[in-house]
Amino acid sequence: MARVKKADKTRIRKVETVRVILSLGDDVSTDVVYPGRFMATVLPAETPAYAFADHAVFQAAVKAKSVPPGAVIAAGDNFGCGSSREQAASCLKGLDVVVVAKSFARIFLQNAINLGLKIVIAPGFKADEGDEIVFEGGVENRTKRTAFDITPLPTARQAIIDAGGLIPYTRARLVRAAAKA
Amino acid sequence: MKKTNVGATVVEKVLARASGKEFVRAGDVVEPRVDLAMSHENAVLVINQFTEIHEGTGIPAKPWDPSRIAIIFDHRVPAESAKTATNQKKVRAFVAEHGIAKFHDIRGDTGGICHQILPECGYVRPGMVVVGTDSHTTSHGALGAFAFGIGATEMASVWALGAALNIEVPATIRVEVSGRFPERVGPKDLILHLIGVLTAQGGNFRVLEFAGDAIARLSTSGRLVLCNMSVEAGATSGIVPADVETVRYLREEARVTDPLDLVTSDPDAVYERTISVDISGLEPLVACPHTVDNVKPVTEVEGTPVHQVVIGSCTNGRLDDLAEAASIVKGRHVAAGTRMLVFPASARIYAEAMRLGYLADFMAAGAVVMNSGCGPCLGIHEGALGDGETAISTTNRNFKGRMGNPGAEVYLASPAVAAASALTGVITDPRKER
Question: What's A76's domain CATH number?
Answer without folding.
Answer: 3.20.19.10
